[in-house]
Amino acid sequence: MTATTGRAGRREWIGLAVLLLPTLVLTMDMGVLFFAVPYISTTLAPSGTEQLWIMDMYSFLLAGLLITMGSLGDRIGRRRLLMIGATGFMGASLLAAYADGAGQLIAARAVLGAAGATVMPSTLALIRNMFHDAKQRQIALSAWGGVLTAGATLGPVVGGLLLDHFWWGSAFLIAIPVMALLLITAPVLLPEYRSPQRGRFDLLGAVLSLAAILPLVYGVKALAVDGWSPLPALAVPAGLLLAGAFVQRQRTAAAPLLDLGLFRIRAFSGAITVNTIAMFAMMGFTLFTSQYLQLVKDMSPLTASLWALVPSVGVGAAVGVSSALAGKVRPAVLMSGGFLVGAAGFAMMTQVGADSPLALILTAAGVLAAGTVGTMTLTAEMVVSAAPVERAGAASATSETAVELGSSLGIALLGAAGAAVYRSRLDGALPAGLDGEAARTARDTLGGAVNVAAQLPGRLGTELLDTARTAFTDGLHVAAVVGLVTMLGASFLAHRLMSHLPARPAEPAAEPAGV
């Protein structure tokens, strides 16, 4: 363990810049493929289920391994784990960029998620080791949080810019020079840290945590997209049983990965729940918005990504209002109100059609994002301050995992609902004259239908395109109704869970997130 005291100097601030770059890449990687879906559909011809796995495999592995990798970093060294993860991320990025099949791309995305799970907690934990002065640490952590937001916003834009000039695989190559710079500079600029009280690593708990997530998500997606079949029907209860086994393991393990005692703190469990639901709603609908702009409104990736920035205006306003009211209005009222605003956004989404004006979906997306992000700004400090000081690190790691899991579940479940409706609407509605292979491709995804329509003679192609776009918006409506009901339920739940908390400014956390 390397420890220093006093104020940080030039070396630490340069080291911070080095840590922020991979953080930016990791958050960008979650959205950089949103506008690449039509190109991947054309090149690799994935099925509807494979397309969803391509999109969310990264996020699920990242969520499933965050706590595991944070615990591992304490044992083997946070800087060492950071460098191992950076190396793995470089290799997986290269494999993903040149994948020649859907299965290979899914596998590469899985490795990217596992590598990302080693990098994310290490960056935040190392900031705690580098900045011991409270004011400097607050500035550093604010910069880290700002980079997270910027990455989520810039990911689709960078992806659109690259796709406007290069092939879809170029979206993965941007990570390689960043991770290479990290590997070169980390030994010089970043301190090493190992926990003095490491205990035995809970390998069984790590296996159970991941084993619980993957079959559960696979089962939900496969049943939604492909209908009932024995394997996915068995996967859902299997995942639930494994989740129960993981919880039991954490109760009995000498050095558990997850401190379940934190969930007995009402403010903590409430904030975790609010964050998870908010990310479920916001990220779950981002994929619909990006595909709508490209495949229904026929925009180029770059044009679509730039239009997708419009809702961020509402997000900025919501963050400002939420922060200003935090010391005057009780959290229960603010959070409940935020979810009601998000519900209004989903209600507007139910009115979006293939021929709707562009302003409708952009306004709906802005209202939805404003409500959810405005709610989430209140929970970050609440998570840490609700837990005892000695457990602040575990509390923050749990919060990060919940956010990632909420994002991934939103993409998977809302995406699966939309895909299921799309396929059901096309059953029996495809124009006569399509051969079997073309019909199967069009029925799988809207991107496949657009590709097939481009190869058909005028009237037949137009008829297929109109039918597929209408089916897609029908799926969007169903997903929006699911989101609307979720937001209304979340509004009630947030008020119930937070009703005991008074209106007061959030106190500074004693420990930064992820340490």
Question: How would you characterize the overall build of this protein?
Answer:
The protein has 20 helices and no strands. The chain has 515 residues and is mostly helical. Helix 5 runs antiparallel to helix 6, helix 9 packs parallel to helix 17 and helix 17 packs antiparallel against helix 20 (458-498). The chain starts with 9 loop residues before the first helix and ends in a 17-residue tail after the last helix.
Fill in the keyword field for this structure.
515 residues, mainly alpha, 20 helices, 77% helix, globular, disordered C terminus
Largest sheet: none
Cα gyration radius (Å): 23 Å
Number of helices: 20
Give the DSSP E fraction (strand runs of 2 or more residues): under 5%
Write down how many β-strands occur, each being a DSSP E stretch of 2 or more residues: 0
Oligomer: single chain
Indicate the mean pLDDT: 79
The helix/strand order is HHHHHHHHHHHHHHHHHHHH
Point out poorly predicted stretches.
Answer: 505-515
Give the CA-based shape.
globular
Give the structural class.
Answer: mainly alpha
Please give the share of residues in helix. Answer: over 70%
Distance N terminus to C terminus? Answer: 14 Å
